[in-house]
Each structure stands twice: as C-alpha cells, then as structure tokens.
Amino acid sequence: MYVRILFPYYDVSFPDFWIADQLNSLAIVLLDMQYFICYLVYGQNATTGKPYS
C-alpha cells in the first residue's frame, strides 16, 4: 500500500493501477455509507433530520 501512495515517484504496474481504479470506483459507495448508517442508527434522513414514515 505504501508504494500506491508514492505513485508519482515509481513506475506503475498493472496491479497498482487496478487496485487504484477499484478504490476510485468505491468512492460513491463509501459516501453513501454515511447515509445508510444514519438511517440504521437514528431512523431518520441524514440531510433533513426528519424521521422516515
């Protein structure tokens, strides 16, 4: 993982490129996870604070 942080200073191989692409593709899933957890824990909308009916 250390080499993946230092990409500008090292040659990039296919496995390094692939794992970086996978992590980039998970960005939306990880952002949506906060709303999912808020719904499970509090039972309300994360943006408005109003409970779901």
From TrEMBL:
<dbReference type="Pfam" id="PF03124">
    <property type="entry name" value="EXS"/>
</dbReference>
<keyword id="KW-0472">Membrane</keyword>
<protein>
    <recommendedName>
        <fullName>EXS domain-containing protein</fullName>
    </recommendedName>
</protein>
<feature type="domain" description="EXS">
    <location>
        <begin position="3"/>
        <end position="43"/>
    </location>
</feature>
<dbReference type="InterPro" id="IPR004342">
    <property type="entry name" value="EXS_C"/>
</dbReference>
<keyword id="KW-1133">Transmembrane helix</keyword>
<dbReference type="GO" id="GO:0016020">
    <property type="term" value="C:membrane"/>
</dbReference>
<keyword id="KW-0812">Transmembrane</keyword>
